[in-house]
Each structure stands twice: as C-alpha cells, then as structure tokens.
Amino acid sequence: MPEIIEAAVRNAFPDAVLDSFEIDGVLNIKLNPSLLVSVCELLRSGESLAFDYLADITAIDWQDRIEVVYRLTSLASNAKVVLRVDLDRENPKVDSLTGVWKGAEWQEREVYDLMGVKFLGHPDLRRILLPEDWEGHPLRKDYVIPD
After folding, report:
1. C or N: which end of the chain has fewer Cβ atoms within 10 Å?
2. For the segment 122-135, what is each residue's pLDDT rounded down to a tens digit?
C-alpha cells in the first residue's frame, strides 16, 4: 500500500514530494507546503485511497524550522500515512485543512496555541488551551517560562 499511496501523490502532483521514507512500516511523505491541501484532497477523495480520518496534527521545533506532522488513516482499509511539512521558524504558516477534514479545526488551534503555527484560512484560529493574553508559545524550544 505505501507504494500505491506515494505513486498516486507523485503522479497527481509531481512537485509535491520532497522526500519519502518509512517509519515502523508507515509511509512518511515530506511535502512542499504549498501543495499540502491539494495532496490531502487527493488522499481523502481518491477511491483507492480514502483517507477519511485525520488522526493527529502535531508540530516539532527543530530549532532551524518548524515541522508540522499530519497522521492520516483510511478507516476502510486501515492504511496509514504521515504527511510532513517544514515551515519557516520565524513565521510558520501553512494552509488550514479544515476544508478537507472538519476535525482539523481544534487540532490546528492546539498547534497554533502551543507552537505558533498560523493556519491560513482557519475559521476560528485562536488559543484553545491558554488564555488569550498569554505571550509566546510554550512548546517552542526558545520559550522562556514567565516568572
């Protein structure tokens, strides 16, 4: 199945895949961030793919970049794929996936709140865990805990 998933993405969007590898048997695809939504629409609606469940969105602070990680599952086949996009650390922004999976709404808010990633086109991008007047993003490696 990993070969089918990767081939479908590469055939539909030749410039989308920057890298691919497997971790514990699960295909991980590093994507061009500008093609994230298009690739996700393909993965959700493709008959042989049908990734209908956005299991998780998280982010990693690598100090030189912010990587946003999306774990997708096809409930019918139990196939899994992980999508990754690297963002500029100083101004991390990427298109929202709320138009593809409604479940992205709160997960994107959490990543915004804790890591500072701006999800463009999100219908209600505001803090979800911390007070609105909180300064900074506490899961960033350079975050200083206030006194």
Report:
1. C
2. 999 999 999 999 99
